[in-house]
Amino acid sequence: MAEKWEKQLKEFIKRTGEELKRTGEELKVEAQRLMEEVRDPARQAKVKESLKDLREKAAAMSKDAAEKLEIAVRKVEGAVDTAFERDKAAEAVRKAPSETPAAAPAPSEAAPAAKPARKAGKTIGKKAGAKKAAGSKPAATKKTAKSIGRKKPSA
């Protein structure tokens, strides 16, 4: 029985060795072909040209992106400056007393017509009497349910 296994093992090793030799030869042929392609001056020139073209396109794209970013930053700066100026102007108007009647806006310009008052008695949400006082809490209820996880520390 042991001789049969030894024979099969030797045949397997022999087949594997032959496959490795063939694979090695194929790799050697492919490596030689690739080396010839790399050494070919025409192919080298083509690769150099494509790299040069790629470098030029990358430089142009980065320049364009930098310009667009600069424009965006300027717009943001302008918007922020405008917002601060409006805020300062509004603050100055609020603080300054109006000395002349011309400074106050006309009633039609100040605000649109006021909305009519709601009818009392009809509400959408909770009833008016159901509102709780601010800060009040409902009465504490004692829970008897048991928890599965860790116990809460007693207060």
Automatic annotation (TrEMBL):
Compositionally skewed regions (Basic and acidic residues) per UniProt: 87-97
Biased composition (Basic residues): 116-130, 143-155
Chain residue ranges for the region called Disordered: 87-155
Keywords: Coiled coil
Protein name: ATPase
Lineage top rank: taxon: Bacteria
Coiled coil: 17-64
Record field: compositional bias (Low complexity): 98-115, 131-142
Organism: Hyalangium rubrum
